[in-house]
Amino acid sequence: MSASHAEAGYAGAGELKDHYARGERSPVEVVSAILDRVVDLNPRINAFSVIMHEQALAAAKESEARLRGGRARPLEGIPVTVKDAFDLAGQETSTCSFSVKGRVATSDAIAVERLRQAGAVVIGKTTMSEFAWSGVSRSPVNGITHNPWGYGLNAGASSAGAGAAAAAGFGPLHLGSDGAGSIRMPAHFCGVFGLKPTFGRIPYYPITNNDYATYAGPMARTVSDAALMLETLAGPHYLDHTSCEAPPENYSAKLKTSMKGKRIAFSPDLGHARVDDEIGTIVRDAARVFADTLGATVEEVVPAWGPLGPEIGRFFWSVYTARHASLLPVWEERMGADLVACIRSGIGVSADQYLQMRERKFAYVAMISSFLEDWDYLITPAASVAAFPATRLQPEHWPEHPWDWLTWSEFLYPFNLSGHPAASVPCGMTAAGLPVGLQIVSRRFNDLEVLQAAAAFEEAVPMHHRRPL
After folding, report:
1. Residue 345 has pLDDT above 60, yes or no
2. How many H helices and E strands in the chain?
């Protein structure tokens, strides 16, 4: 593979915009080089469910003409991938399950429509875990998506392909979704940046039937690229009655700010979570960077709401998943055994049980919100473990369970339930050379502040220059 393919694949969105403006590169050249890289490397990584060669090159030619004519849009000619959970007109939306494979979308999802209207060039759809239910990068339809940092290792899920594509240099921008950590988890495992914004910041339609726990969000190798992507994705839409009224900010222009005097709560375990020692050490060192290098006040805390999360999180995860129970009589043999186990665990919950637990959830969310009012940020590990074999649901040294992967991901789902913005930014590497992510959380609507803290950390600890391939 030529060096030019790698340079094009790892070029940032902001960098490409500058090159296009100066006439140093063209969208056709860049998209062609990235597609060549995908052809060479994707058989090893398996990040794509659909590769759109002809459509991508046609869109790149249109972008080239717009650039020549002085009609460039904000993301003109910038390559982007789309998670298979999102509809893309004329393409299959299988959600990596045989039970819905073959369904071809007739229109674009809101997020896809906005990216295309901004001039982004969609090069393909990325793999995910079946129905986006699991934290492990495999599905019955696509098999294993391999972590670029280690063949056979978990790339995180459900936005597995997006995380792997970002790490492998398959372009700068990647659209993911997050129902219990599915943006931040692959960002952690693959060593890239991922943001789950405030609930409603990015419109989502059809609105998912999981009590407002699913979010769309950007994944990229740098905070600045994710911020640029968020500027296009954010803003209200009439089809999503939960979408925020506020228009997007100029996030990318406002990233640089001082962390001096910021009050940061650091929780290494939320008062209950098991964390591998090496992960704990790396994340604790990252917390010291905020204090010793960036000048923030960092205090270790044990939030009272932390230990309440596991029962609530598992109840809702199994109930949400049980909505697929009607598929079992026909499709069970072609579904993942772990997904089937989770579905069965949620069958039979009464409306009364659901509503009572929902009251507990609302009280839990209020506790999280009240806690965050006293701090500028909360920082935690993004996950308790580094990448492990994707054939497993839990690492070998962790207790086995037929479906519960949340044991090593206790830090992520609380903020799906609560609606707060949360990001994972690379903060270190294990002795085995595997990435580790730091989660940064803030109050609702403080998406810019989360990006600013992540950008400050990224500048102090620049992990984004590392390349696995």
Report:
1. yes
2. 15, 15
